[in-house]
Each structure stands twice: as C-alpha cells, then as structure tokens.
Amino acid sequence: MAQDNEPLKESTLPAPGWVQEFVETYLSWLPDWLEPYAIEFIVILALLFTLFAIAKKGHDLWRWTISALTSLWCRATGKEQPKSEAQLAAEAAHRAEKVSQQTIQGIAEIKDLLTARAKQAEQRGANIPADAIERADVLASEVQFSNDPSKVMAREALREGDLQAAENALVEAFNREHQAAKRLGDQTTQLKAKAARTAREKAALAAIRSASDALRWYRKAAELDPEDFRTQIELARLHRATGSLDDSTTAARNALQMARDERDRSVALDEFGDVLVAQGDLAGALNSYQASLLIRQRLARADESNAGLQRDLSVSYERIGDLQELLGEIAAAVEVYEASLVIAQSLAERFPDHRQFQSDVIITNRRLAELRAKLQ
C-alpha cells in the first residue's frame, strides 16, 4: 500500500534544473501531486521547440546547399540557373509592361506615318475623307493590341512602320478567313464577322491613300456582316468622297436603322447631315446636325467624366458652326465654336499627353480666329 505522504506520480522525464526552479518559483500554487505533470509538460514543450528550431535551421541549410550546388553546376555547364515561380512571374510582368510601352510608343509613330501617307496621297490628287487618318489610327491600334494569330504579320509590319506590308498581311488574313467561312457553309457567323473585321482594318489603312480602294474593302465587309453599323458609316463617307451621293444617302439611312444606342444614332445623324450638305440641302443638314447635338448634350451631361462623350459634343458644335458659316450666320458660328473651345481646353488640361486633345485646341482656336476676322 502506498503511504499517505508519497506523491501519486513521479516525473518519468529527466527535468533540467531550470525546469524544477521554474515550477518551484512560478507554479508553487499547484498541488504537490500535479507538479510532476507540469514538469513533464514543460520538458515536452522545450523539446518540441528545440526540434522545430533544428528542423528549420536544417531546412534553410539544405536550401542554401542545394542553391550553391546548382549555381556551381550551372557555371560549370554554362546553363541558366532555374528560377523560382516568383522570379518567373516578375520577369513575365516586366516583359508585358515593356511590350505595352513599346506598343503605345509605336501607336504614336504610326499616327505620324498615317498622316504623312495621307498628305502624299492628297498631293497626288486623291480625295481623302476628313477623318480617314483618325479611323485608320483606331483600327491600326486594334490590330496592334489584337491577340488574333492571323494578324501576327500585320502587327509586325505596323511595329516596323511598314504600312503597305501591313495592308498586304491583312489581305492575306482576310483571304484565309473568307475561304474558311465558305468551306463551313452555314456554320460561319463568327468566321464571317472575323473576316469582315479584317476587311474593315484593311479598308481603314487603304482610305488614307485611296478612297476607291477603301470603298471596295468596306463593300466586302458589308457583304460578310451586313448589320455592322460602322461599316455603313464608312460606306456613307467614302461614297460621298467619291461623288456617289445616292449611295452615300442609302448607307447613311442604313446606319440610322442599325444604330445600337443613342451615340450611334447621333453619329448617323451627323453623317446624314454631311450627305445633305453635299447635296446642297443646308436647311435639312442643319436639322440633322441639331438633332445629333441634342443627343450629345444629353449624353455629355449624363457622364461628365467621359472624355469621349465630351469630345463628341465639341465636334458637334463645330459641325454646326461650319454649316452656319456656309449660311452666312457668322456670329452664330462664332458662338458655337466658343462653346466647342471650352470643352476642348478642358480635355486638353485633363489629358496633357493626349495628342488629339492638344490638336483640337489648336484647330478650334484657328477656326475661331478665321470666323472672328469675318465679323470685322
């Protein structure tokens, strides 16, 4: 029989002196029978902590050893040292950023090339639509940012500044897409739309040197995608530029019917007004322009932070001002041009690096000076 003064349990683990001292100092309030358990618990914790520290140091040492051996092996064999996932991700992000910056810089250079090409065409007597450069610039940007594998050659040509090579590459891409659409018969909606987009890109680049060539390609786009709004707008502009006013009227009316939203409708109304100006119906053109202006005023008020909608409104004012000049209403023309200038200056201040917005201020100021001179 156990004696009454014997402890119920003795510690089975050898306890260092500091453990005994810790228990006696800080855990003296424990019952005598519980002290051995406390000693074992503390010893176990100390052992676990020590093992964890040793394992961690060992792991670090192992990683360092492997890294050192790998580095020596790579130097000896001339091979590149394997990179971690984090390093690979950082390098990929850096490459993507570099490509993006190069593409943005390339877009600015392409705009200069498009402008120079259009001037050369005009010097040869070509009739270039007013916004041909802007449209070509937009679609060239779409090609450059596209992930479409069929546009690889066109993207490379644009990055090298070779506009003709880009056009040729787009023709080849179009031919492949068009043939694929024909082979697949009725299951070609997406392929037709893809080929139509390529035709529009080719047409936009062609428009800065030949309206008739651009017209031919926009017709191809219309055949493949007859419900596309932008194609009808471009057809209306190019028919007008080549003197086919009846065809221009038809395309402008088609665009009005195909308008997907209020902004599209305002663009179509402007285009219809341009056709009426070419036909000599200035009063009808003014009505069409004013209907477009009302839409753009409403859209601009609804989203004052949207630079595109603000510029649309500025352009609409100027279109009306140009027509009022033709009607001999110079004071009214000055008034709307002043309204346009306020918007243009605001956009130029908000976007100091935007070339188009900076150019808008210069052009609007020049037109205002011309109109004010006529009032004197």
What would your notes on this structure say?
This protein has 376 residues and is mainly α. Among the domains are: 8-64, no CATH class; 99-225, no CATH class. The protein has helices at residues 17-26, 35-77, 85-123, 132-145, 152-159, 163-183, 189-206, 211-224, 229-241, 245-258, 262-279, 282-302, 307-326, 330-350, 355-375. The radius of gyration is 37 Å and the shape is elongated. Residues 1-13 have low confidence and may be disordered.
How is the secondary structure organized here?
Blueprint: H1 17-26, H2 35-77, H3 85-123, H4 132-145, H5 152-159, H6 163-183, H7 189-206, H8 211-224, H9 229-241, H10 245-258, H11 262-279, H12 282-302, H13 307-326, H14 330-350, H15 355-375
Q: For the report, how would you describe the main beta sheet?
A: none
SS-derived structural category: mainly alpha
Q: Oligomeric status of the shown chains?
A: single chain
Q: What is the overall silhouette?
A: elongated
Determine the mean pLDDT. 80
Structure summary:
Mean pLDDT is 80; it is low at 1-13. It is built from 15 helices and no strands.
